[in-house]
Specification:
This protein is an alpha/beta fold and 245 residues long. It has seven helices and seven strands, in the order H-H-E-E-H-E-H-E-H-E-H-E-E-H. It is 46% helix and 15% strand. Helix 1 runs antiparallel to helix 2, helix 1 packs across helix 4 and helix 2 packs across helix 3.
Length: 245
């Protein structure tokens, strides 16, 4: 990572921090007066798009998407490749329905960002509780789907650098199979521009591909997970592996 890339990264994080403070103030002030859905569309989605624009202007990181027409108008579960901290911004900005992320409850302790997350009443779980945390997810997930939110998960469970592989978790497929919901798979190569644990950002274009829905009714979650993993990993491997392509 060059000095220029690191410098641009620090400048980007400076403006990102300011934007998070503004986001938090807007969300907390509108909390008593607006529904979660209205606050998402009025505040969260525009903020996510603004962050992606900042990333383009400051760091030269752009994106292009294929398969946007595959996003349905019906409830579904979104399973996404997790290479970078970039993923939630894009999902928050461009998924057709608001994404309901499942995240660590400890994030609520982060000033501003944690408060903003808490105010949106998404699924914060205590991973230390193991089975209880999963049962909470299985119990609350259908509530969000009925409200029009899309339960959105990263089956790898952590950000995985380009070229590396970890065992995929079956929780997303188990929820989708239990609820009878199709899965919308999304692949991308964001790590070429925004690597894991890196301040610097490499100028370039991130490719995103949205796949066709994968049906789950009457199917085994392990089989479904294997199908989703094969599609996503296959598409990621076909994408450019370096920035500046």
């Amino acid at each position: 990572m060059t000095f220029a890339n690191n410098l641009r990264g620090w400048i980007f994080y400076f403006f990102l921090a300011i934007s998070i403070i503004v986001l938090t103030v807007l969300l907390l002030c509108s909390w008593p007066f607006m529904s979660y859905e209205r606050r998402y569309e009025a505040v969260c989605r525009p903020w996510a798009k603004c962050v992606l624009k900042l990333l383009d202007v400051i760091c030269g990181v752009r994106w292009r998407a294929k398969g946007m027409e595959n996003m349905p108008d019906i409830p579904c579960v979104v399973l996404v490749k997790h290479q970078s901290a970039w993923d939630p911004f894009w999902l928050g900005a461009f998924l057709k329905h608001p994404p309901c992320f499942i995240y660590k409850k400890s994030l609520h302790w982060i000033p501003c960002l944690g408060w903003a997350l808490a105010s949106m009443n998404m699924m914060a779980i205590d991973r230390s509780k193991g089975r209880q945390a999963f049962e909470q997810f299985m119990r609350r997930g259908p509530e969000f789907e009925k409200r029009g939110w899309w339960v959105t998960l990263f089956p790898e469970g952590t950000r995985v650098p380009m070229g590396e592989h970890v065992r995929w978790k079956t929780g997303g497929a188990r929820f989708a199979c239990s609820a009878g919901l199709p899965i919308l798979p999304i692949a991308h190569n964001a790590a070429i521009c925004w690597p894991k644990n890196s301040v610097g950002k490499c100028p370039g274009v991130i490719d995103v591909e949205i796949g066709p829905l994968i049906e789950t009714k009457g199917r085994d979650p392990h089989t479904v997970t294997a199908e989703v993993e094969a599609w996503i990993e296959g598409r990621v491997n076909a994408m450019p592996q370096h920035a500046g392509h």
